[in-house]
Amino acid sequence: MIRIVTRRCVLGVLVCVASASVASAQLAVHQQLTLPVSSTTAVAQGELRGVVRDERNGPIAGAVVSALGSLSFFAVSDADGRFEFRALPAGPYLVRAHLPGYFSERGRIIQVTPSTRATWTIALTHLGTEKNTTVLAAGLGPIDAEPVTTDAGDDHGEVAWRLRHAQRSVLKDAEDAVAGLADAPSPLTDSRSGISHAVGAPARLASALFADVPLNGQINLLTMTSLDRPQDLFSPTAGASPVAFVALSAPVAHGEWRFRGAATDGDVASWIVAGSYKRKGPVQHRYEAGFSYSMQRYLGGNTETLAAMRDDSRSVGEMYAYDDWSITRRISVGYGGKYASYDYVADRGLLSPMGSVTVQPIASDSLKLRALVSHRETAPGADEFLPATFGVWLPPERTFSSVSAAGFRPERLDHVELGAERELAAGVIIGFRAFRQHVDDQIATVFSPEPAGTPSATGHYQVASAGGVDAHGWGVSLTRRVSDGVRASLDYTQAAAVWRGDSPDSVALGRLAPNAVRGTEALHDLTASLETQVAPTATRLLVVYKVNDGFSNADSRPAPASRFDVQVNQSLPFLNFSSTQWEMLVAIRTLFHDDALDGSMYDELLVVRPPKRVLGGVTVRF
Questions:
Q1: Is residue 19 exposed (0-12), middle (13-18) or buried (19+ Cβ within 10 Å)?
Q2: Going by C-beta distance under 8 Å and a sequence separation of 6 or more, which residues neighbour residue 187?
């Protein structure tokens, strides 16, 4: 009955919103629609402001200024060329300006602190500047003109001038050099020959396409492994998998385009690509839409894995769209959904709609009331294929199979939630929520009880339907800035659950993990998080620690247990160049699921014997 009412509520919200604004954009930011917001952490903030000027020291309006650090920010210069970032988390940022028709060259790395108040100048050079005019490089701080040499040995020809003034990025070095050489007279590329047109025109076109695009990027070169005990890290059987991750973002006037891709090789060869557009700024509709596609192929010799994977591979595709519609300054509506297709599930197409309403009753008070209704459908093993909402972005890294001949059954969740939050004195935010969930075919994840250290114990797991469950409860959260650069949050949840016992996998699951077969029970959960930014050393630390008395384990019944996620990012300033920022990353976690904001409360509790995952490597931002 709850499921039917929930679906009707979801459809009602979506139909009303769609009919009220057909011509407007119908998408939203997923992170802004979840409760409670007080669980979001932040660090001490600073400001960064400046002026964008041309080679004649005149202001440039409409230039997109990007600040790339732990997060990406952008601003647009006004009529006086001025821009401002008012709330930047403390840390180093790569700052650049972009505008069609102007050279956009190297940026500078600026250390932002809570006391930063300096005003910086960014200089751009117009593409129409004559070749004998003094050219300024796009950058921050004092701008020096390139010295003019009069040495008779210097080459002042067309090719030399193009090479001296070519933009210095990895792609443009080659593109501009080819364009310059193609335009220069030579026996092979004379202007009267067809070779000049065949080589020069495509090169100039490629260069022009990239010249006006304000791209920021990130490259991760990582290594990951899973283990049961710390000593397994040095075991010959604990093989590590290399991961390559590339991300590109292009800020525009009112939004940002993002493209991401990751790949890994080994017994499990996989890759994932994703693209999205996110609209930002003071607009009525703040929406986000995107897609992702991932594929996994198994090249090892595990017979259980080979039997579970048809054609030795699996693929998953997803499309999503969310919108946060500000009807008035005190009322906003969120709505949207996602559609995913899994080639290894009988019901391939899974739809997950949602809707929410946020009201600020008193304009002068920070109190906000929120209502959320959602229906989520997810397949077993979905965490391997879909992009993470937060944390490190990884391609499919493990394989899985069903515990019985019944095969894979999607989990379907109906969720209703009411919440309130208010900001108190001294930066303290307190939140309260009450929720109710109805779940069909709750997914249980069981890692093999084989001897620790074997690859099959950490790289393969089994999934099952644990049956249906109805749960309701409440929670309270507290978030506070302890000091500059340190933010902590605490979230307590109490719930009661009744299992319906309608699983076709109950017999097989009971033999493999008896404590995963549940009955009526009460649950208590306490989740703490800490995020800190150490400004002098540019070190970022994120810790999430979860304690619950309903974790499934190797014993005959659930028992209190804890799981964690620790991530350290250390800036490497001695490797920074004028247009790149280097960081070292080390992470270790026992939490299995990346996104616990809109999922079932049992998703993490029914993960039996999860191994520890260790990740390390280098991140380069440019």
A1: exposed
A2: none
Separation CA 532–CA 570 (nearest Å): 12
For residues 98 and 52, what is the distance between their CA atoms, to the nearest angstrom?
Answer: 10
CATH of domain 45-211: 2.60.40.1120
One-letter amino acid identity for 567?
Answer: Q
Sheet with 45-53: strands ordered across: 82-89, 45-53, 119-123
Tokens linked to 595 = 């996104």
**Neighbour count for residue 109 (Cβ, 10 Å):** 20
Return the SS3 of 61: coil
**Can you give the residue ranges of every domain in the chain?**
45-211, 216-621
Q: List strand residue ranges (DSSP E) for 101-204, in order.
A: 102-103, 108-112, 119-123, 125-126
Q: How many residues does the chain have?
A: 622
Q: What is the CATH number of domain 216-621?
A: 2.40.160
Q: What is the pTM of this model?
A: 0.69
> What SS3 class is residue 51?
strand
- Judge whether 45-211 and 216-621 match in fold: no
Structure tokens at 323: 């919108």
Dump pLDDT digits (tens) for 124-172. Answer: 887 765 443 333 333 444 333 333 333 334 444 444 433 343 433 333 3
CA distance 474 to 466: 23
